[in-house]
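Re: the 492-residue chain
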Amino acid sequence: MMANHRIWQLVRLLVLAVLTLPGSAMAAEQAERALAAVKKLIALGEVRPDATIKVAFKSGNIAALLGPDLELQKEWEQRSGIRISARVIPQQPALLNLKANPEIDLTVARTNEFPDLLNQHLVEDLTPLVKQFGFKLDGAAPQGYIRPHLQGYFGDKLVAIPADGDVILMYLRRDLMEDPAEQAAFRQTHGRELAVPKTWHEYDQLVSFFHRPEKGLYGSVEQRERAGGWMFWLPRYLSQSAPYRTLFDDKLRPLIDSPEGIAATESYVRTVYHSPPDILADGKDYSYALPLFMQGKAFASVFTIAGAKLLNSAGSAVRGKFIAVPIPGHRVGERVVRLNVPIYGNNLVVSSRGSQRKLAFLLSMWLTDPDNSLRTVGVKGGFTDPFRWHHLDDPRIRELYTPEALAVFSKEWAIALPPGTGLPGDGEYLDVLDRHLWLAARGEISAREAMKRTAQEWEKITLRHGRDRQLPWLKAFNAGFAVTEPGPGAAK
């Protein structure tokens, strides 16, 4: 009896040891570690047992991150004793939301916003908290974050906890691609087989061929409104050179006023000729473009994996009639260079002005735990998309997004590079680019003039911020292009 008792004691100690190992990939271990840390902070008197975390999320994030009927919020409050006070914030840059709401503890930010948030000391560097509480942002299969360094870090600072996966995919009409009559007509017109485009030039041919507005079919509903144009231009630009084309040289002089910048802009503009006439109007973002594709009124679109969830929904006219494919690239010498970027992506950031910074960090780790994150991504009406490898194998998520779309999504992460400029003032730089892309798309200026004016204004922004102050940020940003992260590379 004594021997059996000692054996069970040993087994219990071993189990506890495994459960407290930093970075363990066991499901729910991350969540339990976060809850244990909360209780320890309360026991040490560092936080009050009746403390409240003030979170501010965009409307589409509330249901996902806090659960349907706030089930995740209720579970956190019941298990931790710490209340969550949630509010909805506008669909605007995190910089504006954090400045306007200094009481916020936890909110969301896009990856390209990190330099401004760090430079203005609006968010916490989470690196010390990860170390203090024994966490590790693991990128390995089967349950790791897909690209933790790309989504969460700027340089050596951990700025955000990944909570959303938003590289871009291309969506095409499968039924039209597989139609024998369409295949024959395309072959006669272009002298090649109708196939998924490998280059942006081949994509242009496809959207031109299928553009039939008189029959209610547009070639493309790729977003072209003024705000956010950079998201759909940048992959075209990055792939102009091998291994990639940067926006600035190492002295921070713009490289976009060049044949490569002009070619990327011309590619961006060409889709407008095969799009709805009001595609350039303000406010005609994904909430306008995706429903058109969903209604069967377009041949092609470009968006995040969230598009697959919408197009595969019960009310979609193209359910079972679309395919998700890799974004095209440019032919450079003998190879086709393809590069992607995460565009939207709402990752969790802790406000440096909040009163509950440690609790906000622990809540973010609890929400993005392998088990809990399945519940956030699995919300049908939510804006949270897969960001851990095991999400891609979960039956509920595969049913929502389709296995085929998830397989493409999985592989695109391997060619994803950091988005934006990587500089303080990123919003200023990108607003200038967006404005000139829009003017070029309207036909008011040429692609050459758009890049010339953008480069000139970028130089003024750099001088205003100070070239010497900007250069270290550029160096840290460029270092992120060389970071490789582990992962399975494809969904099953």
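The first strand starts at residue 52 and ends at 58.
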